[in-house]
Fold each of these.
Amino acid sequence: MDTLDNILLYTENISKNFQGIKAVNNVNFKIYKNEIRALIGPNGAGKTTFVSLLCGRINASAGKVVFCGEDISDLPVFERISNGIGYTFQITSIFVNLTVYENVALAIRKDNSNGEENSVSEVLSKVGLLDRIEQRSGDLSYGHQRLLELAMGMAQKPKLLILDEPTQGLSDSEIENFKKLIKDISSSTTILLIEHNMDVVMSIADNISVLHFGEIIADGDKETIQNDPIVQKAYLGD
Amino acid sequence: MRKDLILHFGALAILLFLELLGVFSDYHQGNFARILVLAAYGIGYNVLFGYTGLLSLGHALFFSAGLYASGLSIYHLDYNVGQSLILAICFSAFFSLVIGYLALRTVGVSFMIVTLMFSQVGYLCILYFGGITRGDEGIVIQQSSRVFLSLDLSDPTIRYYAALIIFSLCLIFNLWIAKSSFGRVLIAIRENSDRALMLGYNVHLYKLFAVIISGTISGLAGACYGILFGYVGASFAAVPYSIFPLLWVLIGGVGTVLGPLVGAIFMFYLIDYASDITDAYMIIVGITLLVVTLYARRGLLGELRYRYFKWIP
Ligand SMILES: Nc1ncnc2c1ncn2[C@@H]1O[C@H](COP(=O)(O)OP(=O)(O)O)[C@@H](O)[C@H]1O
Ligand SMILES: [Mg+2]
């Protein structure tokens, strides 16, 4: 199973210290092509920090990141992203003064053969925001802004899409919609999903990694994780 | 036709017809020639401040880089107008690259201070090398040197047309940038540079390009100012000439193509009328600026765009 061919990204002993706090500590992590991997763990476990190390938003204190067989540890963030890592923010980060169209067009970056307008419309119709294409994105409702954030991730057509708590603060019906969308995206993209909502994790993830105090304490498919005594003690709370 | 093209080419047409129909008195013709070149400078400033969101307090450095490159080459090396303009453009571009490279190591308030410091260094250098620059006194460019394609650029009418051409070129270039995907990235950097970076843009390089474009346009405007009005002096490198473009842009409309022109006209005539009324004209100017910034925070055109005409680039 562990041939280099089916691993999309792995880390070796990656660490990040913030003024003495080991936010991420010696993590060895692999993600396989075409899976949906959930990354769970209590607040402050280091999930956001860990994925930021993958995409280069934060520089690692030590360790390396290998993506598609290439060591990307020294690449600046914009190059990692052009190489195919997409990232959506835990706290919605869109261009509020620009239109929905402009937001997505910026995410597409290079115009492909399809033509920018077609590509934007295609992505927006998938997330159901096509009728708001000319709206100022700051005027959208919170739920719609989260959808736009997701649409921008899709528009980048990354090989690996990192979603940092995409369903945070959404209503149940909006969450159902997100689950469908993420399933949909996963047909063409590997997904690393940070998620608090265990219902979402259990219904769409293939595998789960558990982060606790900056360390991966368990890795595996859903059943294994659910029945793992260490995980139950640390996180699931029995 | 598209609304944005009608607006901008309409504005240029009005500036042309004001002259063709002889609406200007000699006095206003001269004023407007000055305003047009200064507005071109404002456009250069706006590329960096209004579109990219980088506030420089030292643009007089770029304005005077072009001014002195052309002025000194005419004065000392007998360059003709065409040659001196080419030199000024190349020099400004190179100079902006170097200054941009250094200044962009900082952000925010530090960037403002660093640009201010660089421009003060430039100003002091002009004074220090008085043997070449003739310092405070400056250089007068003789009428015989101010000839381009056998047109006498000191003639008020020809000068007006020349200023209008320079302004039009800068305006069209700015309009093109504002509409291009390059310009959209600059705006994205202004709005949320963290997000722009996380979409895979080399934010630092885009900022450097913005400084180069901004500095080169400013330098071109400086060179034209010296040639058209025949004077090259250290006062153009001093702090007020860094603050003027900021004020024109703030008043006219931050990140709008026509904003610098609107702001430059407004400021020029505000100072002109206020100084007719009283010697303490800066009080009137100050109060007016205060009122404008309080009630039209985005500048005159910026406010119009925000409230009514979203399509203004
Ligand atoms: N920029 C930072 N500076 C200092 N400490 C930070 C910074 N970012 C995160 N931390 C700390 O690192 C730990 C992990 O945070 P984070 O990665 O945001 O956790 P999670 O996403 O799992 O909730 C927390 O203790 C947090 O306070
Ligand atoms: Mg987090």
Amino acid sequence: MNLKLARDNGAATDAERRLASPLAVRGLTVSYGQKPAVFSVDMTVRAGHMTAIIGPNGAGKSTLLKAALGILKPLAGTVTVLGQPVAWRRDHIAYVPQRASVDWDFPTRVIDVVLMGMYGQLGLLGRVRPRHRAQAMDCLERVGMADFATRQIGQLSGGQQQRVFLARALAQGADLYLLDEPFAGVDAATEQAIITVLKGLRDAGKTVVAVHHDLSTVRDYFDDVFLINTQAVAEGPVETTFTQENLQTAYGGRLAGAQMDALAETLSGTSAR
Amino acid sequence: MSGSEFVPLSLVPMLIGVCVAVACALPGNFLLLRRQALIGDAISHVVLPGIVVAFLLTGIVASLPMLLGAAGAALVAVAAIEAIRRLGKIEPGAAMGVVFTTMFAGGVLLLEMSDTSAVHLDVEHALYGNLESLIWLDATGWSSLWDPQALAYLPVELPRMAGALGLVALFIAVFWRPLKISTFDEGFARTMGMQTGPLGLALVVVAAIAAVAAFDAVGSIIVIAMFICPPAAARLMTNRLETQVAWSVVFATVAAVAGYVLAGYGPLWLGAADSVSAAGMIATVSGVLVAGAALMGPARR
Ligand SMILES: Nc1ncnc2c1ncn2[C@@H]1O[C@H](COP(=O)(O)OP(=O)(O)OP(=O)(O)O)[C@@H](O)[C@H]1O
Ligand SMILES: [Mg+2]
């Protein structure tokens, strides 16, 4: 009877939610050796929202993203992108890794790196036309890197490189953006530039999922949170899920007292809003 | 020099030299960027056991079985290098070192144990090849290029090498984008759904084909030098892959032509009587080009 009521109140079945979600993970277990780095995780990302993946170092956040992308093979579990296996939906996903594993000495300029994002559009033999170049320049413009278009990629600062890889992701024209710590090691101005771009994507109906460490900005930047520590801890809108209790569980009591107090301030401050 | 002298004596070796140089330099660009440039060295070592096995199986010293034996050995080596690199998680340079020394040593042992002493498999030939001997005696001048009868006696190495060059160029043209992206950022290439493993393997196999085809005509010195020197010099000229590859073709061509001419006439100009090995001179010129680029290249670091 109770169950029936819940259904009538509009709660979708799991299958329905999974079909509609730009990224749905079920029972995902990934292991590098003996001990799983991600264990039996369920995650359902809401379309058109910004989700923060939060957890301590080594919690399996990067591993979760890589498995979601199909770069890592899971031991168990499924990943669907809009209801389809991820391999069929590659054109819909853009990914910015935590540390780009690129060859920094490679003979390629910033603009060429951004053009690499258009491989999905251009295919094996498609010609790069002026409109593709214009599109790549526009992506660089959006991350404030247009002036560096003809620099060799290794001749940039770390924060500038980060922005170029964001521009490459933008050039992919994806619907789902997965970013692993996009704000790591960038200055405040760059962080503002990046968050503006990400919010712009969200407002254009795209879905953004980002691993995020700075707990004080979660409320300002994100709509949803996903807390993880090898296993999923909690998932949902920031207002209801980004709570001290959940954070304590995720961080296993490893958040320092002062950090917790500062956080409590931002938590109560915004919930009174 | 008149056409009646140049065409029969120098044109064919020069063209073969250019084909070899470009066919090795093209994949060399990617191998160099992937830090696998020593694969040329590896392949020219492993062809020895291939040639010995081919001789033991057929009992004759002929070009085709030896070429097939060399190709077979190169493929075995490539597979072994990939397997060691993946399974042992060893860096490519070390994996190549393990495989080519083992296979080369195996070749020497095979040679000693079997009764090949009657056959003269000489070291000098393996190193320098016989570029100068690939003359086209049926040619009488430039007009022979349109004469089917003379063309029928064109040294077989030329069409064989031109074919290898065509194959290499076609592979690189078609897979240009995946090769570029996966060499620069393999993780990203995989998120785009590229099969980076098979692609890397295909690149090495194509390089092996070029090396084996070249080995027979020109020996291993040029092969090793052309995989590394023109791309290395070209890298110092530019920060764009497209431009780098274009420069590497220019450098390879210059090295082949200038090396051949210098080998033939350089000693005479210096007052000596004999000419020197064309293969050795071509390799030397390519080394000089690298030195020049290292001193003056606009993109040197
Ligand atoms: N390539 C690897 N080989 C072996 N173990 C790994 C590898 N990558 C990660 N791990 C382990 O898996 C666990 C999860 O790592 P992961 O990189 O997913 O953590 P994370 O949540 O992204 O951490 P961080 O906040 O430091 O980026 C860690 O215990 C880590 O040591
Ligand atoms: Mg991480």
